[in-house]
């Protein structure tokens, strides 16, 4: 007989895996439906600011990344983060090659499915079903990749950034041989898709006037994970006034709040979502004798949405303001912005999403055992 879980999560990205880990910590087993054949590592690496590390502490996985990266390193391999999360889950928690096409098709009215969580990215099927508007273009696109120096890159363990009119770039060491690098510019109509062509266009067409050290980093790009994509965002008022949950269905991560990358909060906020969602579902689970009661889940998800709505809208707005300043504006206004406004926007990273409710290991194992019977 096929097992149907109480909680179904759509998408095995950062938000989906982290949410499953959070639920496991409070004794709730979930099933993740992932359309890819393996864990996705698009984006090569990501920057984790203090709020993300606090969320990882709450999820109980920060020690795994601390063992791989030196203290205070802010960027990590995306694959390493995904694997650290996935390792916390039972082997059968992720069902790969499972494309989620519609809520009706997957019979979510079945009483055995108590909660559905859409973690299915920027173009979320679940968000569309909830009635959230489609993400809009910010006017900028970003190239992201890894640079590999077999003999060592020789750079200090700090972020190096470069700015030009409408453009920005930077890199940060991941270890002694690898760098995570990025380049942003106004979105073009015919962006390259082939990694080798992306590399060539960045060097010869878009960043030719940038310092030679940055161009050398691009020349050392690992073409297997080089991407170029438009930066999308959900309009903050749609997050504030839109339906982020309906009944026992909600969204998290990019499915809720796609945002531009200039404050590096996309992945960080997804980790926050997971902890907050796990806390609200966990509290209801514990309150009801370690049972997921369908009628109570709508209230739990409503509490999650109330806690995340304004936080998500603030992150989207702050990230876009930073993007907007890079797109243009006079030099004197940029000086004012980066001297006085940008530091305040950066404070969004100094946020603690809280912890998960405590549930005994024996109770967690009992719930998992019951779900397997």
Automatic annotation (TrEMBL):
Q: Which UniProt keywords apply?
A: Monooxygenase, Oxidoreductase
Name all FAD-binding domain ranges: 6-68, 116-317
- Highest taxon, organism lineage: Eukaryota
Determine if Zinc is one of this entry's keywords: no
A Pfam family assignment: FAD_binding_3
Molecular function terms in GO for this entry? FAD binding; monooxygenase activity
Record-linked SUPFAM superfamilies: FAD/NAD(P)-binding domain (SSF51905)
Tell me which family the UniProt entry assigns to this protein. Answer: Belongs to the 3-hydroxybenzoate 6-hydroxylase family.
**What PANTHER family does this protein's entry cite?**
FAD/NAD(P)-BINDING OXIDOREDUCTASE FAMILY PROTEIN (PTHR45934), OS04G0423100 PROTEIN (PTHR45934:SF1)
Name this polypeptide is given: FAD-binding domain-containing protein
Species whose genome carries this gene: Hevea brasiliensis (Para rubber tree)
């Amino acid at each position: 007989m096929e097992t149907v879980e109480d909680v179904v999560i759509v998408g095995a990205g950062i938000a989906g895996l982290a949410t499953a880990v959070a639920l496991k910590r409070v004794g709730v087993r979930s099933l993740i439906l992932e359309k890819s054949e393996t864990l996705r590592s698009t984006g090569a690496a990501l920057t984790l600011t203090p709020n993300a590390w606090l969320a990882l502490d709450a999820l109980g996985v920060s020690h795994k990344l601390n063992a791989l990266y030196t203290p205070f390193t802010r960027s990590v391999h995306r694959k390493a983060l995904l694997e650290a999360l996935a390792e916390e889950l039972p082997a059968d928690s992720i069902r790969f090659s499972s494309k989620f096409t519609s809520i009706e098709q997957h019979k979510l009215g079945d009483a055995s499915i108590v909660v559905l969580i859409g973690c299915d990215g920027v173009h979320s099927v679940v968000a569309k079903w909830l009635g959230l508007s489609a993400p809009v273009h910010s006017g900028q696109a970003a190239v992201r990749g890894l640079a590999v120096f077999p003999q060592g890159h020789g750079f200090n363990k700090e972020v190096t950034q470069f700015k030009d009119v409408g453009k920005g770039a930077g890199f940060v060491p991941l270890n002694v041989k690898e760098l995570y690098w990025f380049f942003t510019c106004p979105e073009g109509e015919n962006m390259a898709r082939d990694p080798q062509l992306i590399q060539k266009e960045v060097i010869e067409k878009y960043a030719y006037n940038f310092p030679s050290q940055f161009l050398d980093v691009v020349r050392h790009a690992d073409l297997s994970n080089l991407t170029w994509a438009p930066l999308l965002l959900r309009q903050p008022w749609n997050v504030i006034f839109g339906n982020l949950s309906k009944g026992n269905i909600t969204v998290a991560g990019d499915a809720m709040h796609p945002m531009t990358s200039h404050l590096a909060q996309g992945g960080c906020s997804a980790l926050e979502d997971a902890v907050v969602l796990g806390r609200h579902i966990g509290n209801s689970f514990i309150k009801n004798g370690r049972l997921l009661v369908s009628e109570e889940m709508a209230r739990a998800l409503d509490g999650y949405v109330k806690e995340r709505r304004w936080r998500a809208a603030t992150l989207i707005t702050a990230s876009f303001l930073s993007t907007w300043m890079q797109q243009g504006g006079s030099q004197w206004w940029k000086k004012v912005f980066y001297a006085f406004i940008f530091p305040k926007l950066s404070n969004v990273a100094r946020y603690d999403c809280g912890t998960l409710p405590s549930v005994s290991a024996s109770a967690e194992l009992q719930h998992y055992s019951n779900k397997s019977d």
